[in-house]
Design brief:
Helix content is 24%, strand content 26%. The chain has two domains: 2-158 and 313-345, Medium-chain alcohol dehydrogenases, catalytic domain (Quinone Oxidoreductase, Chain A, domain 1), CATH 3.90.180.10; 160-290, NAD(P)-binding Rossmann-like Domain (Rossmann fold, 3-Layer(aba) Sandwich), CATH 3.40.50. The protein has helices spanning 42-48, 98-101, 150-153, 159-169, 187-197, 211-217, 228-233, 251-255, 279-282, 296-309, 323-331; strands spanning 2-8, 17-23, 30-39, 65-72, 84-87, 90-92, 113-114, 133-137, 142-143, 177-181, 200-205, 221-224, 238-243, 258-266, 287-290, 315-318, 338-342. Helix 4 (159-169) crosses helix 5 (187-197) and helix 4 crosses helix 10. The strands form four sheets. Strands 3, 4, 5, 8, 9, 16 and 17 form a seven-stranded mixed beta sheet that branches. The protein has a six-stranded parallel beta sheet with strand order 12-11-10-13-14-15, with helices on one face. The chain has 346 residues and is α/β, with parallel strands linked by helices. This is alcohol dehydrogenase (NADP(+)).
Length: 346
């Protein structure tokens, strides 16, 4: 066991504070990672404040981890000391179900082991990336290409793959009209990735406040959803809408923006249930869907894709003692576009 410094929420809704945690000794197939940067995801706030249900405390959030390998177990073949690596939202799965065998570990039927606020198959709670080090089985570690800066790569381990996976699955590309709903930590990555895939990209945001940024990052069009004329003008326009919004929406309004056979895919997860008039789906044979992160293989593909196209996340680097302030700023939409913790400050 190794004792490392970390930032943890001691209880639901409590401010995060500096503490220490124990990391397990390196096992045969484990990789010990010196964490350099950890992204702050809105999911961290939902979970630290029990917005998605009962959680495990103390909680060390963080599932956007970028660092450098400092030790490997004797059976490790994929990584060596000094490699630049990342860890995303999961650190294990059953490895035996159909989904795991298909490279869809995020949909493990036995339940994937989450990077934090989870319980490992050894019965021990998992702690995330707001910490100095982490030990992870090599099968759940990905390589960060040299073309990506570590701090800009960290948010790709959640925000990047969360958008890449549905955009790939629903075939965003040349000839497709794609809308990204929400221009935040997730949405700005959706704009970059959809543009790089060759789609015609529209941002749907509450206001035009971030329009200049959206166009600069690759959007072709930008509309304010607070303007009723947007829904009149864009009715029946899109093949695919990816919603990054974590608040309840009037889904009927957004489904009206789809072409026949179009899909509205949710990657944002509101804390409250939603209601839906099914006629908004039936008329036009439309799909209302959800998507989680990607599997390990697809996450590596996403990192390579971003490196090939020369972009990471748009970030604001913060010290560890600024985490609580950063949480409040995320809730106030006062970040462009992802906070990343400099773990050296822990």
């Amino acid at each position: 066991m190794t004792t490392v410094a970390a930032y943890a929420a001691p209880a639901a809704k409590a401010p995060l504070e500096r503490t220490t945690i124990e990391r397990r000794a390196v096992r045969e197939f484990d990789v010990l990672i010196d964490i350099k940067f950890a992204g702050i995801c809105h999911s961290d706030i939902h979970q630290a404040r029990e917005g998605w249900g009962q959680a495990i405390f103390p909680m060390v959030p963080g599932h956007e981890i970028a660092g450098v390998v400092s030790e490997v177990g004797p059976g490790v073949t994929r990584f060596a000391v000094g490699d630049r690596v990342g860890v995303g939202c999961m650190v294990d799965s059953c490895r035996e179900c159909d989904n795991c065998k298909a490279g869809l570990e995020q949909y493990c039927t036995g339940g994937a082991t989450m990077t934090y606020n989870g319980v490992g198959r050894d019965g021990e709670p998992t702690y995330g990336g707001y910490s100095e080090k982490v030990v992870v089985d090599e099968n759940y570690v990905v390589r960060i290409p040299d073309g990506l800066k570590l701090d800009e790569a960290a948010p790709l381990l959640c925000a990047g793959i969360t958008l890449y996976s549905p955009l790939r699955h629903w075939n965003a590309g040349p000839g497709k009209k794609v809308a990204i709903l929400g221009m935040g930590g997730l949405g700005h990555m959706g704009v970059k990735i959809a543009h790089a895939l060759g789609a015609e990209v529209t941002v749907l945001s509450q206001s035009l406040r971030k329009q200049e940024d959206g166009l600069k990052l690759g959007a072709d069009h930008y509309y304010a959803t607070s303007d009723p004329k947007t829904f009149e003008e864009l009715r029946g326009s899109f093949d695919l809408i990816v919603s990054t919004v974590s608040a309840p929406l009037d889904f009927g309004m957004y489904l009206s923006l789809l072409k026949s056979d179009g899909a509205l895919v949710n990657v944002g997860a509101p804390e409250e249930p939603i209601s839906l008039n099914l006629f908004s789906l039936i008329g036009g044979r439309k799909t209302l869907a959800g998507s989680s992160i990607g599997g390990i293989r697809e996450t590596q593909e996403m990192l390579d894709f971003c490196a090939e196209h020369g972009f990471g996340a748009e970030i604001e680097l913060v010290r560890a003692d600024e985490i609580n302030e950063a949480y409040e700023r995320v809730l106030a939409s006062d970040v462009r576009y992802r906070f990343v913790i400099d773990v050296a400050t822990i």
